[in-house]
Amino acid sequence: MIDIRLLGPGDRARWEVLARGYKAFYRTEVADDGYEETWRRILDGREVRAFGAWADEELVGIAHYLFHATVWDAGGCYLQDLFVDEAARGRGVARALIERVADAARERGASRLYWTTKEDNAPARALYDQVARFHGFVRYDYPMG
User: Fold this and answer.
1) Adjacent-strand bridge partners of 100
2) Which letter does DSSP use for residue 43 in this model?
3) CATH architecture of 2-131
4) Please, which pLDDT band fits residue 139 given cuts at 50, 70 and 90?
5) What GO MF annotations does this protein's record show (predicted)?
6) What is the pTM of this model?
7) pLDDT in tens, 86-136
8) Neighbours of 13 (CB within 10 A)
9) CA separation, residue 92 to residues 60, 64, 65, 84, 129 (Å)
């Protein structure tokens, strides 16, 4: 049984373990104060939101998402980070997190839910190909600094 719910103040320590795992997977470094700032924003719930997935009463997965305006429709929901502890993979945790974010997007009236992943992330893409559609877009990041 997987229980999906919003993260709360008592989830900070385990959330950071998972968040650090996510950042390590993508080889992205974040200073310690960056985790503190992100956690504050999650608890605030105005810009960034987060669900956690619990299995056997342990937090084993996280999903960070946000809503934003779009030019041509009712707005979008971006699933920015999705991570499941390696020991809990293959048990439907990621799918349950995606479905819960999709529910939140529907509740908000968003016209779409979308996310990105690395091209070579085959395990994740196998799931994504089951639950979503790939439309062939390629993402570019302009260097801002």
Assistant:
1) none
2) H
3) 3-Layer(aba) Sandwich (3.40)
4) confident
5) acyltransferase activity
6) 0.95
7) 999 999 999 999 999 999 999 999 999 999 999 999 999 999 999 999 999
8) 8
9) 11, 17, 19, 10, 14
